[in-house]
Amino acid sequence: MKVEIIIMLISISIIMLMINLYFLNSRINSYSTDNIKIDSNMIYLDSLTLKQKLSQMIIVSGRRNNERVTNFNIGGIYLFGSKSREYYENKIKAFNEDSRIKLFFSTDLEGYWNPFKRFYNSRTFSEIEDLDDAGKLGDDHGRILAEIGFNMNFAPIAEANGKVWDGRGFNGTSSDIANKSNAYISALQKHSIIGVVKHYPGGSI
What we know:
Elements: H1 2-29, E1 38-39, E2 42-43, H2 50-55, E3 59-61, H3 67-71, E4 76-78, H4 85-98, E5 104-107, H5 131-148, E6 152-153, H6 174-189, E7 194-195
Parallel strand pairs: 3-4, 4-5, 5-6, 6-7
Antiparallel strand pairs: 1-2
């Protein structure tokens, strides 16, 4: 009797799970983006629903090519830790082909944290001595990011006296760090890469 009850409960659980998955997939697959009005590079925000506007504010991991990402028009994809350049390029191409609105493709190329370490060597931020050197690092990073297909970099780290991860931030006074960060970001922008200053509150607090 107890075995029969257990089997019945397991069967009911499986049926409920299948029903939930069916309706979840139905909602995902039926989510239309035909309402979004795009003219050349102009996106008409008033044509987006509230859910689509909220989705545009979110960046998610791109380890999988997921229907939820493309159907809900998530704002961006974060990629990190691949073994090859081709992996990144293919991922970016696949997501771009499936998304109506151009995506942000982001990573953490900081020098210390290097998502391309298997095929690209980079100096750490702590090795940068002056503004010219910061600009050169930004130019190097901007070039490799753009070549692969990225358009956003979660760098530089603009913390003063960061003690948690050696090499992730520029050395010097607060003014030195601010000026080096500005030089680095300006160089990224020449390659159409958006630089993101971080952290808040930061690892040194």
